[in-house]
Design a protein that fits this description.
The protein is of the alpha/beta class. It has a single domain, classed as TIM Barrel (Alpha-Beta Barrel). The chain starts with 16 loop residues before the first helix and ends with a helix. It is an enzyme of class 4 (lyase).
């Protein structure tokens, strides 16, 4: 038995800026949150996480709730994002992996062929019940602040499973994709099932939006993305839409050439990394889907700029806000996650600046 709140008991957040912007409305100010806002940049995070392995922390409801709340208390962001990890559902399902400090996820037995794919375990809801419990705790504490749930997209999960860990070139992943497409698609179908089940648990517990991370999709050509990845990501977004009408966000790193295809998977919001100006991203999205509603975008301050001093940060924030005006809606964020040595005070000042600069629009 979990503490998760049923979808029917979802909070009334009609006026929450993040949700208004995500649906293409006019929020009272541009909403802002940061990928990896709950993490190593916060001293309170380092203190509370001390001695607890990452994946164990992600399955400890009280700890998840505390870590998720920390940036909301400190920065005044317009959304919390559930403290978790994209490989958590694989770990919970029984895949042998660990998160190694300084490296990232490491898989004990990488996938290399059909028999490995057949042996890949499925995720049962009870295996991530602690995540639902954590969401239940957060729903009670967050008040008027929305909670974003998230999961890793099938391609990125497959890359970890095939490569055995992080990869610069994804050569084993691409080799499997091209040499044995049938096995590849079976693998991604199974991973889409796992991802959708993980999101279903979060949605049932009460999250207010979801973000699907395809962190490594930028390693692909548009042709390969459309053939080998898009159908599986689309199935996840369609599955989420059948469960709930919460806004859906899709983000990947280095995906400037894929933005239109990523939007066609079905999210309301497309995340844009720092490599592509938001107005350029909007133009590409509009060109990819003529006649569609103006796209809603999320992003896209370069995380490294946060180390350049306040004058540079302020200048870049204003530039991004101006470029975001071309969109049907804009959620301010970084172009990737907060770097571990970022000064938390700078993040708080960015939130204040975004709110102040857009309050009268």
């Amino acid at each position: 038995m979990t503490n998760s709140a049923p979808v029917s008991a979802r909070r009334d957040l009609t006026d929450a800026p993040l949700l208004v912007a995500a649906r293409g409305g006019k929020p009272r100010h541009t909403p802002v949150w940061f990928m990896r806002q709950a993490g190593r940049s916060l001293p309170e995070y380092r203190k509370v996480r001390e001695g607890t392995p990452m994946l164990q922390a992600c399955l400890t409801p009280e700890l998840v709730a505390e870590i998720t709340m920390q940036p909301v208390r400190r920065h005044g962001v317009d959304a919390a994002i559930l403290f978790s990890d994209i490989v958590l559902p694989l770990y919970a399902a029984g895949v042998g992996l660990d998160i190694v400090a300084g490296t990232g996820p490491v898989v004990s037995r990488p996938i290399s062929g059909p028999s490995d794919v057949s042996a890949l375990p499925s995720l049962a809801p009870e295996q991530v019940a602690p995540v639902a419990d954590a969401v239940g705790l957060l729903v009670k504490e967050l008040g008027s602040t929305p909670l974003i749930g998230f999961a890793g997209a099938p391609f990125t999960l497959a890359s970890y499973l095939v490569e055995g860990g992080p990869s610069r070139n994804h050569e084993r992943t691409k080799a499997l994709m091209h040499s044995d497409p049938q096995t590849w698609h079976v693998l991604l179908e199974k991973l889409a099932d796992t991802t959708l089940e993980f999101l279903r648990v979060q949605l049932g517990a009460g999250v207010d939006a979801i973000q699907l991370f395809d962190s490594w999709a930028g390693a692909l050509s548009l042709r390969d993305y459309r053939e080998f990845v898009l159908p599986h990501s689309r199935r996840i977004f369609e599955g989420v839409a059948e469960i709930s009408d919460v806004p859906k966000i899709h983000f990947g790193v280095g995906t400037g050439e894929l933005l239109g295809a990523m939007r066609s998977a079905g999210p309301e919001v497309v995340g844009v990394d720092w490599r592509v100006p938001l107005d350029t991203a909007v133009a590409r999205l509009c060109a990819a889907e003529p006649g569609a509603a103006a796209p809603v975008v999320q992003g896209n301050l370069d995380p490294a700029v946060l180390f350049a001093g306040w004058d540079a940060v302020e200048r870049e924030v204003h530039r991004i806000l101006e470029e975001g005006r071309d969109a049907g809606g804009h959620i301010f964020n970084l172009g990737h996650g907060v770097l571990p040595t970022t000064d938390p005070e700078i993040l708080s000042r960015v939130v204040e600046l975004v709110h102040t600069a857009t309050a009268q629009r």
